[in-house]
Amino acid sequence: MTPRPLLIALTGGIASGKSAVARLFENLGVPVLDTDQIARDVVEPGMPAFAQIVESFGREALDASGRLDRRWLRERVFSDPAQRQLLESITHPAIREELARRAAAADGAYQVHVIPLLVEGGRGDLYDRILVVDCPEEQQMERLMARDQSNAEQARSILAAQASREQRLNVADDVIVNTGTLADLEQFVLTLHQNYERLATVA
C-alpha cells in the first residue's frame, strides 16, 4: 500500500506572497493544489455546484456569457449572512470533494494545499503541518493597493475581514517571513522543501 503523502497547508493573509511561494514549490516538482482555483473550477457551467447556484439564486447570477457573475454574487452575499451561508453550503462541499479527488490522484512524497482562509475555516487539523507566509500588515496594504488599484480604506477593510496576523501565526508550524528579495524567498522554500522531504520519509 502506497503511504499517504505528507500534507502541508499553505496559508497567509491577502497579498502576503502565498502565490509566489506556491510557484516556488511547483518549480521544485511538488504537487501544489490551490483551493482558490478549485473554487473557480467547481462552479463552471456543467458542474453540479453551478446548477445548484443557479437554482438557488436565479439566472441573475449569470453573466452575458452564461457563466457565474462573481461580482454580482459577491455583492449579493457580502452583507447578507443567510445568503452567504446558502452559497457556502453549495460551494464548500464541492471544493472539499474536488480537493480530495485531486490530492488522491497527485503523486509526491508531500503535497502543498494552498488554503487562504484556513484559519477562518478551522480546517488546520486535517494537515500534518501548517505553513504561514507572513509579512507586516503595512506591507500587505502596500502590495494590495498596488495590485488591485484599491485605496487605503478598501485595503484596510479587506484585511479586517480576514483572520489576524496573530491568529495565523498561532497555528503555524512553519513561517516564511516574506519581507526580503525573491532570492530570500527561494532559499526559504528550498530549506522547507528539504525538511518536508525528510519528514515524509519518516512519517
Structural class estimated from helices and strands: alpha/beta
Proportion of beta-strand residues: 5-15%
Could you say which overall geometry the principal axes of the C-alpha atoms support?
globular
Largest sheet: 5 strands, parallel
Radius of gyration from the alpha-carbon trace, in angstroms: 18 Å
Query: What oligomeric state do the depicted chains represent?
Result: single chain
User: What gap, in angstroms, lies between the N and C termini?
Assistant: 14 Å
Number of domains: 2
Annotated CATH homologous superfamily of the largest domain: P-loop containing nucleotide triphosphate hydrolases
Question: How would you sum up this structure, described in words?
Answer:
With 203 residues, the protein is an alpha/beta fold. It has 2 domains: 1-31 and 110-203, Rossmann fold (3-Layer(aba) Sandwich), CATH 3.40.50.300; 38-105, no CATH class. The protein has 10 helices and 5 strands, in the order E-H-E-H-H-H-H-E-H-E-H-H-H-E-H. It has a 5-stranded parallel beta sheet, sandwiched between helices. Helix 3 packs antiparallel against helix 5 (81-105).
